[in-house]
Design goal:
Blueprint (H helix, E strand, L loop, with lengths): L7 E9 L5 E9 L5 E8 L8 H13 L3 E6 L18 H14 L4 E10 L1 H12 L4 E7 L6 E2 L2 E2 L4 H13 L4 H4 L3 H11 L4 H6 L12 E6 L5 H9 L7 E6 L10 H13 L11 E4 L4 E4 L7 E7 L5 E2 L9 E3 L26 H5 L2 E4 L7 E5 L2 E3 L19 E10 L5 E11 L12 E3 L3 E5 L4 E7 L15 E3 L5 E7 L5 E2 L15 E3 L8 E6 L4 E6 L5 E4 L5 E13 L2 E17 L4 E13 L3 E12 L2 E13 L4
Parallel strand pairs: 3-4, 3-5, 5-6, 6-9, 9-10, 10-11
Antiparallel strand pairs: 1-2, 2-4, 7-8, 11-12, 12-26, 13-25, 14-16, 15-24, 16-23, 17-22, 18-21, 18-25, 19-20, 19-23, 27-30, 28-29, 29-31, 30-31, 31-32, 32-33, 33-34, 34-35
Helix pairs in contact: 2-3
């Protein structure tokens, strides 16, 4: 056991809300009689099993350094009371969180100052709670806060239905009788009856405004994470009253251990008034592939915009000089080598060599670079597309517009093509409708160094499956290279200092968790090409599969398979499905629960058609089953 400044204690407690609902909480705090600040992590995860291992590593570490660390199950989740919020009560999580902050601040062991901690959905929730209760919340540390479910107007296919299936399964889990007692079954049946799948609400929600910090915020993400853009947006909107410090590194989704000392320093400064240099750190520290860069302020004056015309510095091979328009028409399986939308650090999450994808796209290449090129920020592509033809009177043609998918790659002398960043845009289908004649496609932020001798390659495609749902029209689009240009954020290394690398602290060992892996493990990702049917199928299996036995006797068995299929010349053939099975057992109590959830999605020209199923079993007997059908508009941007 590592040594920390304070001995720690742990206890479970319930925090009552004004309506009588009690939230289940686990508290680690330093063994002292003096009031201390609170680091609060409030989540829809389940603290007695799903997040138990990480909780047992990180929260005692915060407590050992002088903070009371509190992990709380949200309403209707885990061992908390109440019903899971629906679309009509979506703000309930935020209201509960704000009330939870106030009640913890009044505890005699708290000095009245609260810091919020969250990753993913909980990271986005922490920002919203701080905005609702800024007087009690003094600081936020948010890692990879969740973002939108549409990209450039296109509907997200990857991750969305999978996450919706997991979300439904998590909310359907019963309270644990070891912690709740005999009331668990009545609470569970009420919870099941109140459930609604979230996918339709996610996809029809209006676009959220750019985030801003309501209190001092430390924002963290990996460059490959969808949240990188949110982290940069927070850094750009930093003010003297609500400072933001941002870190972007080479990490997968989550809060890396290396950043825990930075989080502690942030909390110590704002919750304990320690003069520890937290505000002396630069606005943005980022990994650029070869070094850590420190930039202050952000946006950095050391980043300049460099324009690459698509008929000059970047040029398409094989395009006749007298042909004004370059036609882009991609097979529907373009995008199979995209990698994971949210990377969790597994080998199959990373995009492989992009040469196959390049072959399904139109490529614009530069000459070999004479010197290293540091990219630091958000590229943009200005396009001059050809006017869209009048829409077909056929009811199957739809009006969803045309997808433009752009990738920026670094091509090595041996031909290896490495993905740097990508972005998407939906061109309007109405040729007479309003809009900029030169639309701008925003690519995801990038931090990378392209070595000398490599070429830059911009690729354009009209599909990107299974990341995005295909447009109804397979004819693609045409672009005029002479009026189109790529703008890159080029960083001058001389204008920034090198930041020190981050070091992982010594964390407590978590309670032992026994994992029994399947005898025949499914591949993380497998793709099948049925040549006769001209069909491409992809299956994904997460690393969470397997049986885990927890120290308190809980046995958790989980299996998930996500599958995608598309016919290479038929965009409306695209289908996606996720099957999730979870079994929870307490052999000593004779408690045995199984949950089966499935989400199936297909599309027509104007809608996504979603079919969701839930079946709950107790000791092998079905106690609840329900199906939902939704038609989700595709043009609700």
């Amino acid at each position: 056991m590592p040594s920390y400044p304070h001995r720690t204690t742990r206890e479970d407690l319930r925090v009552p809300l004004p309506d009588g609902t009690e939230l289940y909480a686990r508290l680690w705090r330093p063994a002292t009689d003096a009031p201390v600040p609170v680091v609060l992590e409030y989540s829809t995860g389940r603290l007695t099993d799903w997040t138990a291992t990480e909780d047992a590593r990180r929260h005692p570490w915060f407590a050992g350094h002088g903070h009371a660390a509190v992990r709380v199950d949200a309403r209707g989740h885990g061992n908390s009371g109440g019903l899971p919020p629906t679309a009509a009560s979506a703000d309930a999580l935020v209201e509960d969180g704000a009330e939870l902050v106030r009640r913890l601040a009044d505890r005699p062991w708290c000095n009245g100052r609260i810091g919020l901690l969250g990753t993913g959905a909980a990271g986005a929730l922490a920002l919203r709670i701080a905005d609702r209760a800024p007087d009690a919340v003094r600081a936020v540390v948010t890692a990879c806060p969740d973002g939108p479910h549409r990209l450039g107007g296109a509907v997200l296919a990857a991750d969305g239905h999978t996450r919706a299936t997991a979300h439904l399964a998590d909310a359907a889990r019963p309270p644990d009788p070891l912690y709740v007692g005999d009331d668990w079954r009545a609470l569970w049946l009420a919870r099941l009856a109140a459930l609604e799948p979230p996918l339709a609400d996610w996809l029809t929600a209006p676009a959220a405004p750019a985030p801003a910090a309501a209190v001092p915020t430390l924002a963290i993400a990996g460059w490959s994470d969808p949240a990188a853009a949110t982290v940069l947006a927070l850094a750009e909107r930093s003010t003297a009253a609500t400072p933001v410090r941002a870190v972007l590194g080479p990490w997968p989704h989550g809060l890396p251990d290396e950043l825990l000392p930075e989080a502690l320093r942030w909390y110590d400064h704002w919750l304990r008034d320690l003069d520890n240099g937290a505000l002396d750190t630069p606005a943005l520290r980022s990994w650029l592939g070869t070094r850590w860069s420190a930039d202050d302020p952000w946006p950095s004056p050391g980043v300049r915009e460099v324009h690459y015309g698509l008929d000059g510095p970047l040029r398409a091979a094989g395009t006749a000089s007298e042909d004004r328009w370059v036609r882009v028409r991609s097979p529907q399986h373009t995008g199979l080598n995209a990698g994971a939308y949210v990377a969790h650090g597994r080998p199959a999450d990373r995009p492989p060599d992009q040469r196959e994808e390049d072959g399904r796209s139109v490529c614009f290449d530069s000459r070999p670079l004479p010197e290293p090129l540091e990219l630091h920020g958000s590229p943009a592509l200005t396009l001059h597309p050809a006017p869209a033809p009048p829409p077909s009177p056929s009811p199957s043609s739809g009006s969803g517009g045309t997808l433009v998918a752009a990738r920026l790659c670094a091509v090595a002398p041996d031909g290896t093509s490495t993905l740097l960043t990508r972005g998407f845009l939906t061109l309007p289908a109405d040729p007479d409708g309003p809009g900029d004649p030169y639309p701008v496609l925003a690519l995801a932020p990038v931090g990378a160094t392209v070595p000398p001798g490599h070429r830059l390659r911009l690729t354009l495609s009209s599909s990107y499956w299974p990341w995005l749902w295909p447009c109804a029209d397979p004819d693609g689009f045409a672009v005029d290279p002479s009026h189109s240009a790529l703008t890159l954020p080029v960083h001058d290394p001389a204008t920034s200092t090198d930041a020190a690398p981050f070091r992982s602290p010594t964390l407590p060992l978590p309670p032992p968790l026994h994992l029994t892996e399947p005898l025949i493990a499914r591949p993380e990702r497998v793709t099948v090409h049925d040549i006769g049917r001209r069909e491409w199928r992809t299956e994904l299996s997460p690393a969470t599969d397997g049986t885990r036995t927890h120290p308190d006797g809980l046995v958790r068995d989980e299996h998930t398979v996500t599958a995608y299929r598309v016919l290479t010349a038929t965009p409306l053939s695209a289908q996606a499905r996720t099957d999730h099975t979870l079994r929870l057992e307490r052999p000593a109590l004779g408690w045995d629960i199984t949950l089966h959830t499935r989400t199936e999605l297909r599309c027509d020209a104007t809608h996504l058609l979603a079919h969701t199923q839930l079946r709950a079993e107790e000791a092998g007997n079905v106690v609840f089953t329900k199906e939902w059908h939704h038609r989700i508009p595709r043009d609700n941007t």
